[in-house]
Amino acid sequence: MRQETIEFTGHIIDSMILPKVFDTIMEDKGDFEVLEFKIGKKKTEPSYTKILVKGKDNEHLNTILQKLQKLGAIIAVPKDAETEIADMDGAAPENFCPTTNQKTYIRICREWKEVKNQKMDACVVIENEIPVCKIFRHIKKGDKVVVGLEGIKIEPIERSREPMGLFGFMRSDTSTEKPTITLIKEVANELKKIKKSGGKIGVVCGSAVIHTGASRALAEIINLGYVDAFFAGNAVAVRDMEYEIYGTSLGVNIETGKVEQYGYRKHTSTINSIIRLGSIKKAIDKGIIKHGMMYELITKNIPYILAGSIRDDGPLPEVITDIRESQDKMRELLRDLDLVLMMGSLLHSVAVGNLMKAETKVICVDIDPAIVIKLRDRGTSQAIGIVTDLGTFIPVLLEELKK
Amino acid sequence: MRQETIEFTGHIIDSMILPKVFDTIMEDKGDFEVLEFKIGKKKTEPSYTKILVKGKDNEHLNTILQKLQKLGAIIAVPKDAETEIADMDGAAPENFCPTTNQKTYIRICREWKEVKNQKMDACVVIENEIPVCKIFRHIKKGDKVVVGLEGIKIEPIERSREPMGLFGFMRSDTSTEKPTITLIKEVANELKKIKKSGGKIGVVCGSAVIHTGASRALAEIINLGYVDAFFAGNAVAVRDMEYEIYGTSLGVNIETGKVEQYGYRKHTSTINSIIRLGSIKKAIDKGIIKHGMMYELITKNIPYILAGSIRDDGPLPEVITDIRESQDKMRELLRDLDLVLMMGSLLHSVAVGNLMKAETKVICVDIDPAIVIKLRDRGTSQAIGIVTDLGTFIPVLLEELKK
Amino acid sequence: MRQETIEFTGHIIDSMILPKVFDTIMEDKGDFEVLEFKIGKKKTEPSYTKILVKGKDNEHLNTILQKLQKLGAIIAVPKDAETEIADMDGAAPENFCPTTNQKTYIRICREWKEVKNQKMDACVVIENEIPVCKIFRHIKKGDKVVVGLEGIKIEPIERSREPMGLFGFMRSDTSTEKPTITLIKEVANELKKIKKSGGKIGVVCGSAVIHTGASRALAEIINLGYVDAFFAGNAVAVRDMEYEIYGTSLGVNIETGKVEQYGYRKHTSTINSIIRLGSIKKAIDKGIIKHGMMYELITKNIPYILAGSIRDDGPLPEVITDIRESQDKMRELLRDLDLVLMMGSLLHSVAVGNLMKAETKVICVDIDPAIVIKLRDRGTSQAIGIVTDLGTFIPVLLEELKK
Amino acid sequence: MRQETIEFTGHIIDSMILPKVFDTIMEDKGDFEVLEFKIGKKKTEPSYTKILVKGKDNEHLNTILQKLQKLGAIIAVPKDAETEIADMDGAAPENFCPTTNQKTYIRICREWKEVKNQKMDACVVIENEIPVCKIFRHIKKGDKVVVGLEGIKIEPIERSREPMGLFGFMRSDTSTEKPTITLIKEVANELKKIKKSGGKIGVVCGSAVIHTGASRALAEIINLGYVDAFFAGNAVAVRDMEYEIYGTSLGVNIETGKVEQYGYRKHTSTINSIIRLGSIKKAIDKGIIKHGMMYELITKNIPYILAGSIRDDGPLPEVITDIRESQDKMRELLRDLDLVLMMGSLLHSVAVGNLMKAETKVICVDIDPAIVIKLRDRGTSQAIGIVTDLGTFIPVLLEELKK
User: Fold this and answer.
1) Is the confidence metric ipTM above 0.90 for this complex?
2) Which of A14, B115, B335, D306 has the smallest CB count inside 10 Å?
3) Nearest C-alpha of chain D: how many angstroms from A311?
4) Check whether domain C78-158 has CATH 2.40.420.10, yes or no
């Protein structure tokens, strides 16, 4: 029988952390005793608890402690984090400590230091006394990789005790039965608030934005300055330009809704034409593309990433075809965003979610409720979901933003 | 080996009727020979074909002929329809001819006469030389019920050769990837066109209309005179009034979107209050209900049916609790409608679909694509489906109607 | 400023009750102070807390208290419940206390007494010192109806601290990504356990059971004695018999999967034939129906309810056409069930959920994840959902039950 | 006014081709006259028609003819195909003729020759008098690319007049209401038939196969020799091995169904371990992986492709990170498959669909009906869809294959 004393501080009751602590210990068939418990007596006071956790042997106890750590537990008498030297490029030592997307501190020389570039499913390397989050393939032989359990402190995002606005009233609920216009107003308020305070907004855009006829409205939102980073794939760029050149998307006429039965020619012709010109920018310079999302992004110098996938036709010259390069550039661009609005793409939304820290807010909008569930199941648990039709959501959002 | 000669006339190729004829014969392992075929050489000309159908015995041939009849086949040398006298109340003779929802003619005294009150899954009774569609429980002992195969002609709705507007470009496709705003404009045009020509519009309304915050917009559409008949259940009326009294629907605040966790009190209180007053009308007269869908319907004397279901709390005094009575009243109200707009209710949409003729146009709007599929699977094959969020669809439709 | 002291006892932390208490107070903009807090130091010990709740006036405080009551709060210095005499048949006095589906106690003559026939969205009447749950239309003028907040204690179902079996590992999660065969084994174990201990099982059956070809397997489960009550509608009985007579369901051949394009004749003929015979039982007696679910239910004298809906063709003689009568009989039959297995029907599942107490376990199986979400949204929060195909679920469950 | 005479031969009525021809002309506001029409008088006889098509000018006529060509039209007096010399690497001349996935013939020196490596959205290059399908990036400066409309003949897959088995009864319908066990038996028969005749079967596998607990059953199907090519991504391989090493998939215990709340460690550890070893094969050689899908594929030398995506953690050494390389290898592997069974992955299914010819049969199995719809919308119109739970589908299929 082995035991360890751990501590938690914060709004641990109404953040659902304490129930999860008890659940975790019991699910793993460990045991516990609550040694101390001070509840915040008023709304603004944090609570504190000291718990003795027991496992049947060292390994059992460590398994439990590792999970509690992700809930914010710190070992009551903290030591510095242990490290091990990477013995090869591109992989961590076997008992590396995998990261979450939550804010994390590493104790180095008796001082808690925040991990830089936080991201889930990676590891922490200490560089010049600074802890940095690194994915496997960026590890170099000789790196000091954090291992074990000591000296690691995770601060899960606290649900505020004074819920306000969209993130307040949405938090406990993923039901589809919500007053849509009200939700859109709240999204608009959130975007305006971020821009007013100098914050940055990213957009993940799937081709549903174009099929549902909303790309012109999104282009106008970009034009208004609401988008600081744009994440999409080959198809979005092709269809955006197909629409601007031919008025169709995959052969569907966006103005009339009419399906042109064999309209794929326009799709492949668009790709071929851009390849012939050499780049989207040249198509803009030559006056072939005069509107649309790509037009706004490029003429306004807004950073965008077109990440390749095996579904791509072409792809366009701007598309990054190596997924490692796409991920590295996406991670870079995501670093200083305050909110990401994900619309109509499961692949790109899950990918972006994997690459970002939990502090960045996420609003995921899709007509399929399964998308939000999958995004949260894959670890982007901060995401709030709005189940609606992008074809009306984006135009109505634009109207609200213009008010 | 038995055989029969049948004829088809009309746009039988581009209405997909001919392929279905061949399919039907082959699926049933019958045989056929095309005796004559005159194709319409220009767009406006109908085609004609005479086909010899073969079955292995009388029963086999009749099974095939019965199916072909539903596609519009008439037996080349027509006889008058056979009838049999009903031997009991509430049921037809065993070999009655079940109806479709398509326009049907019965040959009586060498004359083709159109069946009145057409509806699917019922039977035809001849009353004073007039064929009338009757459901089983309206059959009386002694009624002359049409049986067998002779003297019956069905005219399936023809797809026009000059497709226009919503019903034109939607017909071949149920994909969700459609430009939504364009679709809404087309729906608005369709509604305006019907009203301009003196036609009548019915609305089937589920509680999603209220949850998604769209009931005030629908109330305004009713106020503008676009709704001539309203089909809903207890829940819709309760929640509409809960919203007007308390600002909530099942405890969700429609203006702020906030969930009041134990807001069911307002739901049950609304029901209790109306029961205490005796009727919705009295609540309006007393000034308790001043807006909303029920308010508009009642103050404007627009016919509505609140059909009861086993899910109902209460129910309200206006709710019809016997399903047979509901069906009879619904069928009555449906008879002279030109278009039914179905929104947010599978139960009521399928029920209304069962009770109406195929000539009445149907637009079914729901965020769940399965709803439209089920509606069509259940026989309302004329329905076109729009997969979108009612919370934005109805407000945007209102704006279009006001233009 | 008004205040009241309340108490909670039990596993209030890991049952998520305490966080909900704080949420509720804050969402309603009330204030609170934690006066006492004793946490269960070991797994098996309950916790206790005493909280001072503050509202800005009497009404505000009462609104909050009412919600806290549903979480299990009792007012620290309890008084007997207040009652008011019903002034009319069929409705409660305006400030009646609406019920939840949770176990509830009423304080009568200083004694806490459990409410009989508990059900959500109804009211409590005291009859001979015994509190009984009554729906509005069963209230008679002169009944003593419980009103106000005093003397009411609700005991929400506690999540056990030692999670086991299906209800253990499913509780926190509605994700569709679960090992299906494992889940089916757990359902089988649960059903066997209930039967072994003399418990009773109900089944809600929608027509998907028949379309997906699983009705013969469900009939065999009935035959094995696993079903004590059966809830369905007209369509299920018709299609079950259509399958037994013709081998089809709505014209789809269940053995070959082939769609008989105009197979509706068999559906309407089945209805007509049963009406002609007078009852399903007579069809069994005459040897027309020799297998299937209805056959097993009737020959084994298992109670079943076919509740009518406005979608019904016919309906069959056994169908209850008045929804009030259906509800009363369903409530009666539900009273002593230990578990209800809901399969393939949203309408009947929500209806059954509305009529039952929260102690009865609910397993809801459907291929559409939205069904479970809607069931829980409508208040049947004890339901656990399994997202799978009934066409394989039921046959595999049968195999497990036979083991 | 310009006109051209075209011809069609085959089962053009029951293959729905003729109605589409008329639709296409009318949608494009062209005109037509039927010059000749010979209908196949018996089941086995093909039909023939000669149609005069009219457009308002040359461009209008050509647009229509191009679409008719995809339906199988050939210009009545055929000429050889025109070609143009590619003026740059990686792109086609502007008026190249984009391909479909249907069997296509090019007229070269008065002889119709079948295009090799057929695939949609590419172009045709003539190499040594042989027409070959090439994607843009494989075009080299100087290639002879087919342009214009002359000398091109497309043979759309004909629906057989004698429908049998799975592909027979499924063809006209995508409804979810199908007898599942019957469908699974038909799939098993289809797979057995292909293997018996020496054909080849491919499998597209998404991670739902593992989450739903079906990976061991699929591994056994591979072991039985039913899989000749395997298409998946990084996640499938990682989770397959995580299951074999730890018994979990993304931290869900597959045997007990229990969610290990912070089980992601096992996912990342699996990746890191394989990277450290250098390859999956080495993990097998060292006895770390002893069962599972990857084990069967590698020990049996069955070709597999793990195509990278931006969602990937790691990725594993075997994963192809450049999407162009993935596509090239996938196309190679797809070339001689007779049937592809797609299970649980939208991304990989659409990608595979894009890369293959229409003659290869496709069965797509998913619990989400939207997947099949999207697959068909993207051009893989030969796909038939089965909406069921992979967690039961695969084990039941295995049982059927073993019979």
Assistant:
1) no
2) B335
3) 4
4) yes
